[in-house]
Amino acid sequence: MKNIAILCSGGDVSGMNPALKHFVEYSLQNGLTPYFVYDGFEGLIDNKIYKAAHQHVAGIINRGGTIIGSARSKRFMEREFREIAKNNLDALRINMLLVLGGDGSFRGMELFYKEHGIRFCGIPSTIDNDINGTQYCLGVDTALNVIKDSIDNIRDTAASFSRAFVIETMGRNCGYLALVSALCSGAELCLIPEIEYDLKEYEESFKEQIRSGRKYFIAVVSEGIKEESSEIAKWFEQKIGLESRVTILGHTQRGGNPTIYDRLMAYKFVTHAIDGLLDDKNESVICYSKKGFEYKSIDEVANKKYELDSELLGYLKRF
User: Which residue among 12, 128, 130, 262 is the active-site one?
Assistant: First the structure.
């Protein structure tokens, strides 16, 4: 069969639309008929599967989010609904599927393949960058640039009012976004779930910096740390003596115009994913590391806990 489909699962990221554009173009170049599955695994079940062509992806490369929608599907975890999904794909003679998502999505597809033989390749797509086996997930660079712009803007106000600002990033239990943003934005404090901290250890140093002329502080914290951001702001006021504010960046980090790097990575991820399926790699995730692109099994990706790069953690010591 020469039919291939793509879907987005879980949280959207900037980079999905560039991936969809190249999916259509590269599929057609390889003699494949591309299909879009709308609304993730829910769309597989509800038969929201439609043939895609150049006209459907014209002008989308600069748009954040995903034009085909995304979702989290509890129904897909039940055998009866996976059977429905299989029948819908069979009706269109589709037996190859690209999945843009995270480890939960890949586990679902592994089960689908073992039950029904639908070949797939996963493309790691989450701004949290917390998927084991890959050093980069689609959407991360755009999210980092959104955070960078926000911190740079907040710094102007922090300096003008002599305040401490606590800026909270996304990441669940992974501190990647907070750590990289703090390093690249010159923050004075960075707190992430991976490293235990005691605010008392910072008090004398921060007070000395104020005595030496420092007027403001920027603290970047991950949402997964042990304390609320408001508690960190209260600490700045009560122990350091600076008026403080909290900014929770929230879902602003998931949207926005995809960066050049995310557009390029979308192109590369999709190319390798389709090439892998055409080369009989039937149940894999395409991962990226310093070695380049590699096809990895679901066990390597979804069943092991992601750990932050030791080099990045080493940089945290300067805080």
Answer: 128
